Amino acid sequence: xxxxxxxxxxxxxxxxxxxxxxxxxxxxxxxxxxxxxxxxxxxxxxxxxxxxxxxxxxxxxxxxxxxxxxxxxxxxxxxxxxxxxxxxxxxxxxxxxxxxxxxxxxxxxxxxxxxxxxxxxxxxxxxxxxxxxxxxxxxxxxxxxxxxxxxxxxxxxxxxxxxxxxxxxxxxxxxxxxxxxxxxxxxxxxxxxxxxxxx
Length: 199
Ligand SMILES: C[S@@+](CC[C@H](N)C(=O)[O-])C[C@H]1O[C@@H](n2cnc3c(N)ncnc32)[C@H](O)[C@@H]1O
Known about the structure:
Blueprint: E1 18-24, E2 27-33, H1 45-53, E3 61-65, H2 71-79, E4 84-89, H3 92-104, E5 110-114, H4 117-120, E6 126-131, H5 139-152, E7 153-164, H6 169-176, E8 182-189, E9 192-198
Parallel strand pairs: 3-4, 3-6, 4-5, 6-7
Antiparallel strand pairs: 1-2, 7-9, 8-9
The chain binds S-adenosylmethionine.
S-adenosylmethionine binds next to α2 and β4.
């Protein structure tokens, strides 16, 4: 991850943009990532697991929590053109990429916000939240982010989240489950667990 963490607001790593293609669920996107941003130059395996498993209503308000260069929110926006997709990340380089990637792929039903999610999201509420969470921020911040996400879900809303088993997926599920009315593991593959948590 270069010299700084991917969740730094202003990465110091020298910019080295890299373009690649993502094909998933019959969606094809050409995306640009960069050093100092999560998963430089390739789609993360955990993100791919989430993209394959997430179920989306036809419309509504979706949130890509910790959007990085934007792949999850952009795939959701293409799959559901009637939805409004908010994408947020604390990393300024990441959100610049996410906005540029939306424009480059002709995707207009997205809004990109920069900053600490609980603060910049204001009073926004969502029907679906999609998240490959920043485990490396540590448990207190991680649980603050997920607790805030749970509070933002409308009744019946769903959080879809992926965590690697080696990053404590089972423990995180146990600790976060009380924030929701129901949580289940919908997939276990390649060491990743995909969780569906309903409000
Ligand atoms: C594991 S990465 C996932 C990135 C992207 N969604 C993907 O799947 O490639 C988690 C992201 O959460 C972001 N993040 C960390 N702390 C955050 C915070 N307080 N508010 C918003 N985003 C945050 C990081 O900068 C990082 O981009």
